[in-house]
Design a protein that fits this description.
Blueprint (H helix, E strand, L loop, with lengths): L1 H22 L18 H4 L5 E3 L2 E3 L8 E9 L2 E8 L2 E3 L13 E3 L4 E7 L9 E9 L2 E13 L6 E2 L4 E5 L13 E8 L4 H8 L15 E3 L2 H10 L5 H5 L6 E6 L6 H4 L14 E6 L5 E7 L7 E5 L14 E2 L6 E2 L1 H10 L4
Antiparallel strand pairs: 1-2, 3-4, 5-12, 6-11, 7-8, 7-10, 8-9, 9-11, 9-12, 12-13, 14-15, 14-17, 15-16, 18-19
């Protein structure tokens, strides 16, 4: 009888959580005065990147988009873009006489500033700000990078459209000409990130606590803005539910596997009891978006599915999976990142 009651309670909690998540309305605004994205004028919205293909230098705006848009590589099946870009790079509209950008960077939604990094050389983000938003009881994190001056402090409550900073070009590899703001919207993977980082990156200090980019999994923010134009009632779980499972991994259950509690809408079905493991569905980007209870006993992360295709998966999964077909496997990098999800286990 107690087993049945516990199962029913889990199902009820999952149902309530899913309903709360689906009911959460998103009031998003673009982070700068550049609204060309909404007009379909992508070249005026995205900052260009420098690209070298076959010795030919070009400056495509496509490299400023979210997704696999950088580092083209010629393979047998054609040109494959192997480097993933986690956010969207928005070009400035206004510059001073020296060419410095003047554009304000603003919060895309109401929330609380949870992290401010004013050290321009402490990461590829340069100076950056992270804002926590709560939709449907779940936390999401917008990140604004390559900033010049920052106008907020950690702990500040902000409204949508409130000024956070002035656009800049801080961070490695960005000059004044390519000044822009890099904006992400993320899921947070694990509160124990700092201990995990100390174990796997002993010679690389973590300057940013849990708000290190490795611990933040980005979604397609530009795609979300455009989807909301068509359906203003769209909730994040429904938007992310459109993702295609590019690969799946089974991980042992652990008290420190936080995704089912932090994002209960991910759970595909309520487990009858404490499951032995979870099967995690990942988008090609590495974004986890679905969790399925599993009875399989595993001692560590195991690849359970990879989308069929002729190209070695290491070029398609940010190096987390390698091979193809029956020979596909998690790489050491992939295993380390999967360990993060249940760390310490």
């Amino acid at each position: 009888m107690r087993v049945w009651v516990r199962s029913a309670a889990l199902l009820l909690l999952a149902t309530i959580a899913a309903a709360r998540a689906e009911d959460a309305s998103l009031n998003l605004v673009l982070p700068t005065d550049n609204t060309a994205l909404l007009r379909g004028d992508n070249p005026e919205f995205y900052q260009v990147v420098e690209r070298n293909l076959r010795g030919v230098i070009s400056y495509p705006w496509q490299g400023g988009q979210y997704g696999f848009v950088r580092d083209p590589r010629e393979l047998a099946g054609g040109i494959v873009y192997t480097r993933f870009h986690e956010g969207m790079d928005i070009r400035p509209l206004n510059r001073d006489a020296r060419g410095e950008p003047l554009d304000e960077v603003r919060a895309i939604a109401a929330g609380k500033v949870v992290y401010v990094s004013r050290a321009a050389g402490a990461s590829n983000y340069g100076r950056y700000v992270v804002v926590e938003h709560r939709w449907g009881g779940c936390p999401y994190y917008s990140l604004y990078a390559h900033l010049n001056t920052i106008a907020v402090e950690a702990g500040h409550a902000v409204q949508e459209g409130e000024k956070l900073a002035i656009m800049g070009h801080t961070g490695s590899g960005i000059n004044r000409e390519r000044a822009h703001v890099h904006v992400e919207l993320n899921l947070l993977l694990n509160d124990h990130f700092e201990q995990w980082h100390d174990m796997f990156f002993k010679n690389d200090p973590n300057h940013h606590g849990i708000y290190n980019g490795i611990n933040l999994a980005g979604l397609d923010l530009a795609g979300l803005f455009l989807a909301l134009r068509k359906d203003p009632a769209l909730a994040l779980p429904a938007f992310l539910g459109r993702e295609e499972a590019f690969y799946k991994v089974i991980v042992p259950n652990s008290p420190n596997f936080q995704l089912p509690r932090r994002y209960p809408w991910m759970v595909a079905s309520a487990p009858n009891e404490k499951p032995a493991a979870w099967e995690i569905s990942f988008a090609r980007s590495g974004l986890p978006f679905r969790l399925t209870p599993s009875d399989k006993a595993v001692s560590g992360a195991e690849l359970s599915y990879l989308k069929p295709g002729p190209i070695d998966a290491r070029y398609l999964t940010r190096g987390n999976v390698s091979g193809r077909g029956q020979s596909a496997r998690l790489t050491d990098n992939g295993k380390a990142l999967l360990r993060l999800l249940t760390f310490p286990d």
